[in-house]
Amino acid sequence: MKKINFKHIRIRKIDPSELDDRMLLANLYLTQAITFIIGITVVLFQSQSLIGLLRLPDRWSAYGWAVLFAAAVLLFDLLIARWVSEEVTDDGGINKKLFAARPLWHIALISLVVAVCEELLFRGAIQHAFGPYWTSIVFAAIHVRYLRHWLMTGMVFLISYGLGKMYMLTGSLWTPIAAHFLIDFVMGCVIRYGKEGKDGES
Fold first, then answer.
1. Is 103 left (phi over 0), alpha (psi -120 to 50) or beta?
2. DSSP of 51-114
3. What pTM was computed for the model?
4. 47: left (phi over 0), alpha (psi -120 to 50) or beta
5. Which residues contact 54 (CB under 8 A, 6 or more apart)?
6. pLDDT tens across 111-167, in order?
7. Which among 26, 96, 118, 202 is most buried, taking Cβ atoms within 10 Å?
8. pLDDT confidence band for 6 (50 / 70 / 90)
9. Which candidate, 183, 29, 189, places its Cα nearest to that of 117?
10. Sign, CA torsion 110/154/140/143
11. Contact at 8 Å (CB) between 155 and 143?
């Protein structure tokens, strides 16, 4: 049997400019669909009630926590953008490619899909088994475009850990979903309607 020489295997860095818009969106929605399916499968395997897991919170304070957490994350991100070089916060241009020319309704849709699918898997399923710390390790690891910089990796970890703690505090999965949505939506709008987005239109 011929042996595989792993030394010759190379992972090529993908240039965002090589992806057209249709391919980028197809990849996004496909990965989120897979995330959603895995999340549901794991939840059911754990004998959790999917209906109970997705039940809306009884108190509006659950959404209040989401707004406060999202505001804190966005403020911290603003400070990083102001005081840290762009090289450190660079994600390879994926977010700019995804949001720079996107209409508002589509930014909202993308943010909602990502929030629901990822929180169902990570907070609803993985955290149920391993707790917020190890869940956040995995969450940070899958955001491979940030792994080159310890600051962004650490920030993703802390955001995930905060989302997990909010879920434990409120008992509602919709709290981290709402916070995740707000963070992605606002950041998407900043890219779309900020200087970079306007430059992309011209």
1. beta
2. HHHTPPPSSTHHHHHHHHHHHHHHHHHHHHHHHS-HHHH--TTHHHHHHTT--HHHHHHHHHHH
3. 0.85
4. left
5. 120, 173, 174
6. 999 999 999 999 999 999 999 999 999 999 888 666 677 788 889 999 999 999 999
7. 118
8. very low
9. 29
10. positive
11. no
